[in-house]
Design goal:
The chain folds into 2 domains: 36-147 and 183-343, 3-Layer(aba) Sandwich (Rossmann fold); 349-452, Dihydrodipicolinate Reductase, domain 2. The chain is 40% helix and 12% strand. It is built from 16 helices and 10 strands. Helix 2 packs parallel to helix 6 (120-127).
Amino acid sequence: MKIWKQITSVLIIASLVIGGVYLGDRLTTRGVSRQKYIKFFEEHKEYDVLFYGSSHVLSGVQPMELWDKYGITSYNLGGHAASLGMSYWVLRQSLKYHKPKVAVLDIYDMYAFDQPYMDISFMHYSMDAYPAGITKFNAVQDLLGGHSTQEKMELLFPFSVYHSRWNEITPESARLAFDKSIMNSNYGSEVRYGVAVPPEIKRVDPDITIGGSEGADEYIRNFVSICREAGVEVCFMRIPYPASQENQMADNRVMKLAEELSVRVIDLMQDDKKSDNLDSRVVNWDTDFVDANAHLNAVGAYKATMYLGQLLRTYYGFTDKRNDEAYSNWNTDFRELYLPIMSANMAAQSDFKTCLMMAAYPEYETEITATKAYDPDEVCEKLSKLHGDRLKLTYIAGIDLDNVQADNIVNYDLDGEPMYESVDISGEIKPVLRMTVKERDTGKVVLDKMFVQ
């Protein structure tokens, strides 16, 4: 009897310790990682596709659009600055929850650094949501080999680095820590806002490669073998980006390795090779990037996702599940979560090109009334063409500010640069255009703004 009491006491103490650590971890850990993974963990049906890679994947593939246009279920498990090593361990951990038909790994930056190099601050985004266990322990040992025990503990038990946040906890923050409605509305991906034009980059011959960084080939081979052992088809993908010549040589090396491993490569760059400069038939170099050296913006990601959807359906024969009652929650999430949040994000923008870019989505229709002072540059012209007949442009003598809410009179010029505080947009400077965006299905106005030249 005494032994059983001792055992019971130990179990109770252990339960209290584990429960305390869980509670402390949930209350003090910042929720970005948890928000990313909530939908992934809670989905009971298997996904058609899971995407892995760096921020190129994170901002370049939109699962909700893949669903709405093709009825393909997917989740974006890309991470900020994720190394090959991180993608491999995210694969290992994610397969404990879901075994998709296809796992897609983006080839960007596979040889950029000796593996598994990446900043530990970015590791939290991809790792924190996964519970402690043998797989996570092995991941931490591998990803932080040579680092201090304190750094490893930080990644294995995020509570250890966030414990100083106890004084920030309020009843409301405690409620939000367990609120599952606060989630990533686009099934793991992150939309980027802005328009930037990359420089011209000379194309590199496909036969020219670069030496592999230490550990890269091993992670690639292990990624492929883990998928095949789990009965998951694997393919590589190249998201369109302004690849430097060194990047192109690294991509070429991965292409050859893919051939050796008999792995399909979905190349969304699809260079037409009309000149000596790098190009893509999938996206437009002048309108579809958010920064000049790397990432697709929202409409660029939409284009890449649409092209990707065609290829996935062709290669893997996915059935369209949009009318399947078992997947009705996906339609609900698109209509009630994804689209309203995208509309709200568009309404929050102050740069005209960004608003014009986001309104190019087929879910919207746009009306612009402009004065003769509106002189669109080449990028604005190209962005306008993306709308097709969903954009109506009317020139008028002047814009009437009567009955216009003050919040909609934007104190920014067309390039998003703030006007001086002393400038009265309704006095010294007059607006040159008014942009109104509505949801096509409902007619709801989601953006109504004035801009100056």
